[in-house]
Specification:
Elements: H1 2-26, H2 32-63, H3 66-85, H4 90-93, H5 96-113, H6 115-124, H7 132-140, H8 142-157, H9 162-167, H10 172-188, H11 195-202, H12 210-217, H13 219-228, H14 231-251, H15 255-283, H16 285-298, H17 300-308, H18 312-340, H19 346-376, H20 380-399, H21 401-413
Helix pairs in contact: 1-2, 1-3, 1-5, 1-8, 1-10, 1-14, 2-3, 2-5, 2-19, 3-5, 3-6, 3-10, 6-7, 6-19, 7-15, 7-18, 8-15, 13-19, 13-20, 14-15, 14-18, 14-19, 14-20, 15-16, 15-18, 16-18, 16-20, 17-18, 17-20, 19-20
Amino acid sequence: MIGTSIEWYDYYIFGTAAALVFGSLFYPDFSPVAGTIAAFGTFAVGFIARPLGAAIIGHFGDRIGRKSMLVLTLLLTGGSTFLIGVLPTYAAIGIAAPLLLLVLRLVQGFGVGGEWGGAILIATEHASPRRRAIYGSFAQFGVPIGVLASNLAFLAVSGMSDENFIAYGWRIPFLISLLLVIVGFLVRSRLADAPEFQKAKQGNTVSKVPAAELFRRRPRTLVLASLAAIAPPAVGYTVIVYMLTYGTTVVGFERSILLTLILVSTAVWMGTIVVSAVASDRFGSKKVYALGTLTAVLWPIPMFGLVNTGATGLALFAFIVAAIVQGIMAGAQGGLFTEIFDVSFRYSGISIAYQLGGMIGGAVTPIVATALFGAYGSSLPIACYVMGLSLVSLLAVLGLRQNGAAVRAEQANAPTTETEPAA
């Protein structure tokens, strides 16, 4: 949880900065709308690198172990984040500034690509099958905690004058990353690989080419899991990234107010993850995840309607319900994805599926939302777009039912992987 929170902090401060300042600092020759789209485009590049990071880091995670890859992802993500904090802007070095920002975002995305899968497996593979969701939820806390920490960091500097914020204030959250990486490294260096993976390694059942085995044995599961993973980032990035631009420039909220509203809703997000994880271990991860995707289909139109009123209380309610929607899916996702992939290629499977879904749901959504509003001048097309993505995830998770049952049957026939002696 600690390590994952640090990595998602690194990742999300980029999204916040892209919404608030990157357009004017790195793309000053563009119009305000084009500059925002360009900044979101740089933000999206990190998602393009995430599936590649998932495949490569997942390969070695299935071959060598989960722990070493988690240390690597932390160093890649944290190091690139710190360098963004000292990066000269377009005014200082011209076209080299956005190009270097692009490269650092690629490295950041590559590292995050292998993060989620390893963190989830370190947790879930230490658990019995009946407690996988609740164990996995601790890694899932990293996302809202990262959002919380990144928004707190920007909220702390948002009281500056616009001149000081643009001159140096935006850099402070990135520079803090160096201290967090040191803490994360100390934590992760003490981790032990999960007994389930160690058992596979000792039994010489580790796959030589995990990704190839994954595509050969579970292609349908991989496709459906990737589609099922679209809804959480589609809803999440609409709120925590696009809403910062939409709420300030269109509706007229102050930057500090929106950041505060997102902070409050994040606490609800974390609480919902716990409830969802407990329900998943009791009723099944697929049922709970499907419920979450259904709520993701239903909420976008009411959410934008409430924000469009310009009333702080109604906007807070909109974000809180969106946080509940995300929390339902997040609490079930770790257990669900662990169940549907075999241990020999599990790191690769859950990482690739999660990152492909994130690329579709997260990378494109702020760009499409900005373009749709520019074309139609209304939030309705944006809400319909998010609803459509969530509907795809709902149908995909329903299609995973048969594969999930087959995998659970295999696990029931396999030797126990409990960390404690069987009774």
